[in-house]
Design a protein that fits this description.
This protein has 257 residues and is an all-alpha fold. It has 2 domains: 103 residues, no CATH class; 109 residues. Helix 4 crosses helix 5 and helix 11 packs antiparallel against helix 12.
Length: 257
């Protein structure tokens, strides 16, 4: 038993020695942290690379890890393909000093494992259209994430990042997947909408959706049209009042307002 234990200890020590020589200028010690998942760069990962980087950033800040020690800490939480990719990239360019700039490790991970792998990150953003039966909340979130990926892509290309909030707003107002909310957004010129305005409308949409028991705006609109159509004997003024009650003001009333 003692001999086996000694062999196991020697093997572990040898593995730790190998780790210390994995990356030039970086000594890697394998540390256990039950609160932070490792990132492998494959289908077993619980988080996307963007989410994992956000977690590791919080981790190093929470534990007060100095800039010079952050590369070591990051590497200790990489496994499999992700670890190999970073090791090879750093070994191929000895001028990269991750002890001074651990951001380089994040850049390598994003370059290889981000969904935004295109050389045209802005084009990818503008191609982000609503999916089949996607609700406005999910589309708004997906647009914002697409903008984050576009900014990351521009950063990797050494290009100046731009404020994407206006572009996110423009895309949402043009392509809002819910007919009722889209109708509301069309009541004023597209350039007058701000990101905050859209967020408030989305918040209202979510509250109304919960109040209606999860019925979508499209289903409500279809139900309201059927109800109005069935009231053929109603005077025109009454029908108009019912229509405005369910669908909001007419385009003409929007202009007058």
């Amino acid at each position: 038993m003692t001999g086996d234990h000694g062999t196991t200890t020697d093997t572990q020590n040898a593995h730790c020695d190998d780790n210390r020589h994995d990356i030039p200028n970086v000594t890697v010690h394998v540390m256990s942290d039950k609160g932070l998942q490792t990132f492998r760069g494959d289908s077993t990962d619980k988080y996307s690379v963007q989410d994992w980087i956000a977690l590791i950033r919080t981790h190093v800040r929470k534990h007060g890890i100095s800039v010079n020690d952050q590369a070591e800490e990051i590497m200790s939480h990489l496994m499999g393909k992700a670890r190999d990719v970073v090791k090879i990239a750093l070994r191929s360019d000895p001028e990269i000093d991750v002890k001074q700039k651990p951001q380089f490790i994040y850049d390598i991970l994003l370059q290889y494992f981000s969904d935004a792998s295109s050389c045209l990150p802005l084009a990818d953003f503008y191609a982000t259209l609503p999916r089949h039966k996607e609700n406005p909340v999910d589309y708004w979130i997906r647009l914002n994430k697409a903008a984050d990926r576009a900014l990351e892509g521009l950063h990797r290309q050494g290009k100046q990042a731009q404020d994407m909030s206006g572009e996110i707003t423009l895309m949402f107002v043009k392509h809002c997947p819910d007919p009722e909310l889209s109708y509301t957004l069309k009541c004023k010129p597209i350039h007058e909408w701000t990101s905050r305005d859209v967020q408030l409308r989305i918040d209202d949409y979510q509250r109304e959706l919960r109040a209606s028991g999860g019925v979508t705006g499209a289903a409500q609109l279809k139900s309201h049209i059927a109800a109005v159509t069935s009231e053929q004997s109603s005077p025109p003024s009454a029908s108009l009042a019912v229509s405005e009650q369910y669908h909001g003001p007419s385009p003409l009333s929007c202009l007058q307002a």
